[in-house]
Amino acid sequence: xxxxxxxxAGILExxxxxxxxxxxxxxxxxxxxxxxxxxxxxxxxxTPHIYSTRASITIVNKDFDPEQKVKTTLIxxxxxxxxxxxxxxxxxxxxxxxxxxxxxxxxxxxVSHGENIYIGAFSYIGENxxxxxxxxxxxxxxxxxxxxxxDNVIVYSGAKIYSExxxxxxxxxxxxxxxxxxxxxxxxxxxxxxxxxxxxxxVILEDHVDIGAATTIDRATLGSTVIKRxxxxxNQIQIAHNVEIGENTVIAAQTGIAGSTKIGKNCMxxxxxxxxxxxxxxxxxxxxxxxxxxRNVKDDEVLQGSPALPYNNFSKSFIHFKNLSxxxxxxxxxxxxxxx
Length: 340
Description:
Shape: flat
Strand content: 25-35%
Mean pLDDT: 94
CATH class of the domain at 101-242: Mainly Beta
Helix content: 10-25%
CATH superfamily of the domain at 101-242: Hexapeptide repeat proteins
Number of helices: 4
Largest sheet: 12 strands, mixed
Number of strands: 40
Oligomer: single chain
CATH architecture of the domain at 101-242: 3 Solenoid
Structural class: alpha/beta
Low-confidence stretches: none
Strand order of the largest sheet: 8-11-14-17-20-25-28-31-34-37-39-40
């Protein structure tokens, strides 16, 4: 798909300086630009590249005044970075603008759906599923019985949404994510053998939730596992049964959250964090990568370590960690001196 400089300037409400008819079909970094590519200049340290880039079109700030001749066609805008981001979003919308139902698929006769939907080949849509407007379901997706998908949802290839799950508007579920699998519920009997505890609840994703590739969110034993509005989950995260994650919290890859833990809003949780079950984490909490959380956490705490300590305490303690062997030697010498 090709766009001219004039078309792009129209989308961005920008001004063309150069050839308005030059066409681009790809995006590139400014230092790697080639003929037919579009790039942008927002960071001043990359300014030298604009005089050598081979990109056909470059988006720049309105106040950019070249000090020498440039070969690339410029599009001047108020904010080059924001405009380029807007263009990326527009490009994605165009790229993902698929409609219709491919074959083969299985769609139950009891499915209801809105307008302008896309269902890719080899997908399965179960009984009593409700699908909103502008939903995109890519190939090889499984949608279980009684699932609800809101408007403008995107479900990428290979994702699985188990029965009874509820997905809000503008959610994105990436490839191989699993929403609504059974929670890890087993109880030992008198023989010491583990018997499965039925998991009868569901998963609720509120609006504007993003779920990364291969992330798993377990259904509740009773009630719901709830991911609230605006939550962003990275790839390969495990969310156990009956967990609740508050609005606009972001969690990085390979974090695991055990059952029935409640996490507040606007939290930032780094990668490979482990959080035990049945605790409460407050609002605006920040947890550094690879920390282990085994207690309730108050609002606005910043934690690091395993078990996690307040961040400043951990930083001070780490200085001593590195000197433990020297400190032990000094203690040993003091003991020898005392005993002489």
